[in-house]
């Protein structure tokens, strides 16, 4: 499909005409009415516009490019996001709510093609056929109870074993055709992922072997944190089962040269409330401020007993790198002093959600011989979505790339940390713009960890349009900006894969 034949690009808007134009876009079915109402009321318009439902599904080529796409950058960037903030007339409350939308950018010899498609799970198709919201979302109950919840594959997307896997933590991954983005079924890794096991949205991959590591929670009596090795034949091998006293919120993990580290905050699900069907998973979360945050250190081969270290209570979603040198480890995490982020996210759709304590980029030093944390320092404030050159996993890295937030959970500043010089470099998205997590892509044949590109989506409220930024990782200078002619919701994670 070509955009010149099947799709009309959205009009270019200046800031003065933006609000007036929203009404026209609503009438054309390009913007959700509830979104426009909040914008016209002066409510945090950028954060809402950045996550609005896509203008269309399809494939577009002949895109407008500012600058030049590097000709040696030949591959595909995949992104996934919650795709809408209403469901058949029901306003969705939580930022995590909404059917998953996949977007892919194919870069070939300086040209770009973009595709977007909802992940058509059986639950999405059933709701579309009935015209009714039937299934609970993470933070929104369906009008009529009885169907249970959705496993929205809207957090991350990886290429594995000849297919895309769209990921969340609610259950099994969704297998997606990497060419057409068509849903192919829920994936159990050739029968090796148990039916009652969730699967992380953040698997990690050993840069030396290509083997992956992942985890899930056993939803039976033991609530065990179960750790898997993702074999190159596509199957899983269980390497550890760590029984837990509660169903804890563990989102990410760290991969070192010899060990894995799981950071378990004192945030768990109230299972009786959750199983009652009267509250959402978001409403069933509980925070125990008097309990510690636990660090579980496990050997990658699954041998030996795990080492458990304690830190003050707090919340964490994401981590940077884990560097190992003998018995000493250095790890970078985005730690929050409390769990107020959950209150903010759960009330995201309200006009004045409660403010959250901002996460801090924190470096911890672990001594496995002494079995204690020997160092803790704050490197940056109010940052999220850390990425680095994953070829350096397990080694000391010089650079880490993060996003700094703006209002209503928008990310508006790209930050480059240089640990060797203890300096940071910032790139602001500009007024009316929001950024998405940046993905580091090394240049072919180059080993330096800043010799590559940063790829990230952005959104312009002035144009009501999504773009792809390609920046030099060493300087943060923009090489190219690819305008899509569409708007896609800004989401959380994604990955780039070179052509084989």
UniProtKB/TrEMBL annotation:
Keywords: Iron, Metal-binding, Oxidoreductase. It holds the Pfam family RPE65. PANTHER family: BETA-CAROTENE DIOXYGENASE, CAROTENOID 9,10(9',10')-CLEAVAGE DIOXYGENASE 1. Binds 1 Fe(2+) ion per subunit. Fe cation binds at residues 202, 251, 318, 493. Belongs to the carotenoid oxygenase family. GO terms for molecular function: all-trans-8'-apo-beta-carotenal 15,15'-oxygenase activity; carotenoid dioxygenase activity; metal ion binding. The lineage of its organism: Bacteria, Pseudomonadati, Acidobacteriota, Terriglobia, Terriglobales. InterPro entries: Carotenoid_Oase. One of its GO terms (biological process) is carotene catabolic process. The keyword Cytoplasm does not apply. Its cofactor is Fe(2+). It comes from Silvibacterium bohemicum. It is an enzyme of class 1 (oxidoreductase). The keyword Disulfide bond does not apply. This is All-trans-8'-apo-beta-carotenal 15,15'-oxygenase. Its EC number is 1.13.11.75.
């Amino acid at each position: 499909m070509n955009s010149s034949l099947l799709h009309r690009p959205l009009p270019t808007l200046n800031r003065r005409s933006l609000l007036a134009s929203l009404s026209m876009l609503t009438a054309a079915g390009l913007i959700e009415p509830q979104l426009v109402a909040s914008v016209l009321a002066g409510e945090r318009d950028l954060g809402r516009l950045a996550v609005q439902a896509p203008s269309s599904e399809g494939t577009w080529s002949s895109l407008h490019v500012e600058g030049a796409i590097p000709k040696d950058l030949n591959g595909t960037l995949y992104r996934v996001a919650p795709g809408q903030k209403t469901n058949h007339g029901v306003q969705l409350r939580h930022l995590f709510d909404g059917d998953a939308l996949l977007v892919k950018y194919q870069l070939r010899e300086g040209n770009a093609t973009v595709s977007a498609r909802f992940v058509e799970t059986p639950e999405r198709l059933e709701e579309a056929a009935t015209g009714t919201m039937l299934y609970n979302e993470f933070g929104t109950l369906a009008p009529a109870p009885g169907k249970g919840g959705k496993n929205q594959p809207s957090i991350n997307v990886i290429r594995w074993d000849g297919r895309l896997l769209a990921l969340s933590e609610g259950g099994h991954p969704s297998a997606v055709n990497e060419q057409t983005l068509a849903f192919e079924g829920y994936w159990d890794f050739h029968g090796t992922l148990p039916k009652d096991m969730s699967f992380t949205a953040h698997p990690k991959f050993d840069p030396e072997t290509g083997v992956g590591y992942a985890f899930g929670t056993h939803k039976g009596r033991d609530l065990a944190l179960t750790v898997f090795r993702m074999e190159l034949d596509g199957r899983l091998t269980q390497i550890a089962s760590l029984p837990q006293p509660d169903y804890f919120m563990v989102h990410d993990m760290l991969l070192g040269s010899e060990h894995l580290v799981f950071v378990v905050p004192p945030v768990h699900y109230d299972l009786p409330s959750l199983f009652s069907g009267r509250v959402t998973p978001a409403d069933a979360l509980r925070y125990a401020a008097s309990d510690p945050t636990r660090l579980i250190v496990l050997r990658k081969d699954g041998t030996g007993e795990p080492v458990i270290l304690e830190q003050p209570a707090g919340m964490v979603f994401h981590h940077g790198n884990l560097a190992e040198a003998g018995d000493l480890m250095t790890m970078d995490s985005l730690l929050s002093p409390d769990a107020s982020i959950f209150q903010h996210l759960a009330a995201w759709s309200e006009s004045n959600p409660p403010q959250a304590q901002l996460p801090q980029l924190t470096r911890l030093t672990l001594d496995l011989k002494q079995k204690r944390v020997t160092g803790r320092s704050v490197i940056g404030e109010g940052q999220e979505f850390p990425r680095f050159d994953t070829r350096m996993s397990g080694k000391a890295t010089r650079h880490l790339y993060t996003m700094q937030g703006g209002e209503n959970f928008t990310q508006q500043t790209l930050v480059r940390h240089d640990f060797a010089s203890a300096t940071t470099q910032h790139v602001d998205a500009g007024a009316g713009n929001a950024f998405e997590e940046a993905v580091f892509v090394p240049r072919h044949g180059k080993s330096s960890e800043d010799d590559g590109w940063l790829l990230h989506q952005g959104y312009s409220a002035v144009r009501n349009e999504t773009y792809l930024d390609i920046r030099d990782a060493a300087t943060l200078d923009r090489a190219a900006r690819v305008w899509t002619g569409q708007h896609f919701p800004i989401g959380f994670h994604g990955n780039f894969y070179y052509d084989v």
